[in-house]
Amino acid sequence: MAKLYVVGMGPGAEGELTARARAALEAAEVLCGYTLYVELLRPLFPGKDVHATGMKSELERCRWALETARSGRSVALVCSGDAGVYGMASPLLELAGEVPGVKIEIIPGLTAALTGAALLGAPLGHDFCVVSLSDLLTPWETIETRLRCATEGDFALCLYNPASRHRPDALRRACEVLLQTRSPQTVCGLARRIGREGESWELLTLEELRTAQADMFTTVFIGSSRTRRIGGRMVTPRGYGE
Amino acid sequence: MAKLYVVGMGPGAEGELTARARAALEAAEVLCGYTLYVELLRPLFPGKDVHATGMKSELERCRWALETARSGRSVALVCSGDAGVYGMASPLLELAGEVPGVKIEIIPGLTAALTGAALLGAPLGHDFCVVSLSDLLTPWETIETRLRCATEGDFALCLYNPASRHRPDALRRACEVLLQTRSPQTVCGLARRIGREGESWELLTLEELRTAQADMFTTVFIGSSRTRRIGGRMVTPRGYGE
Lengths: 242, 242
What we know:
The structure is a homodimer. By secondary structure, chain A is an alpha/beta fold. Chain A contains eight helices and 13 strands. Chain A has helices at about 20-25, 35-40, 60-70, 90-95, 110-120, 140-150, 170-180, 205-210, and strands spanning about 5-10, 30-35, 50-55, 75-80, 105, 120, 130, 155-160, 185-190, 200-205, 220, 230, 235. In chain A, the strands form three sheets. The first copy, chain A, has a five-stranded parallel beta sheet with strand order 3-2-4-1-5, sandwiched between helices. Chain A has a five-stranded mixed beta sheet with strand order 7-8-11-9-10, sandwiched between helices. In chain A, helix 6 (about 140-150) links the parallel strand 7 and strand 8 (about 155-160). The longest helix of chain A has 13 residues, at about 60-70. Chains A and B meet through helix 1, helix 4, helix 5, strand 6 and strand 7 of A and helix 1, helix 4, helix 5, strand 6 and strand 7 of B. Strand 7 of chain A pairs antiparallel with strand 7 of chain B.
């Protein structure tokens, strides 16, 4: 029985890998993951065996990783960002019961909420919510309810999957929900292609965000009522007493 | 003018440092931070100058870092976990206007929501909220409102600062708010001393969590209605369609 590492690789830049993630990727006999992410890692581990598959084949990939580990080859199942946040740790653990006995180690990594926030300033300096706008696995009504609850609680928000080819208007729809109760002047930010070639970021208002361009490599930050633009950065104060 | 790095060091274990954080700590002439965190790093950087101060002197520490960088010495302002999540990036950026021209780089790190989740399984596999129970800088009513909104939106929750000597009952009070609408059988988890000597974790129900022991080194996870105990781990499925 070999080991199965579920590894959060961070945004893709070599510098954002933790030492523990790097050691697991070194130790594994084969790297398994979505083609794009595996390709980002390949230059760091030349000669390493790779099992790369396309999007939407996550469950197949988890099964392959479990079976491969059971057969005696150690595997690193690679996730962009963190292993747990919309990552593979969850479906893998759900399936692990079907392939008993495999030793699983989950290795956290920097998710886009953290790496994007660091680019913009400190938008998540106080309580926050993370919401995915993908309705692939979640009904849109659930997403909308969560956006309403987050804004009612005056949370700062980080939005994942703000758009895709099949959902070009998800971000606009989300902004319209938020604008029902949150000021159009709310400080917001976009981080694009974090840690990769073409990385960029910008600050804008919630009203401007409504019509902003976003894609699957964009992470969106929406301030609370206390978030401010300070020296060109987006800053949510740590508390109400300062 | 020298550089000021605000560095998320992760939980404290050497393996959880990113390469970028490590390089910044190497590059800085002086490490500045809360005594406990600086002491965790000292063995990795022997001989490095250190400016360590106690808790509650955060603003003084930010000013010292800004002034030191302005005077021409590069500084790494060290944060446990991430630099942005309840970290020093926010107060530092608020104060930076008073000391103009210092070049600030924020370097993200693994916050306890991610490292604790990886220990427990995948409690944050879908939308989640992060809430601090510390009422030092936030009125308790605001905390309670956020807990209500988070549970109304059926978010998974990660709670920071669940207790301290001066707030021994914060976790019990929070659980009582959540129990008004969320099942007492909700899957919950505690992670203690993540990445440090004495690290431990356990799963329990929300009802059991109400009377559980927590301290300032404990991170608390509360499942959504969809979170399950699978193979002894806490797992929140990634979506509603699977």
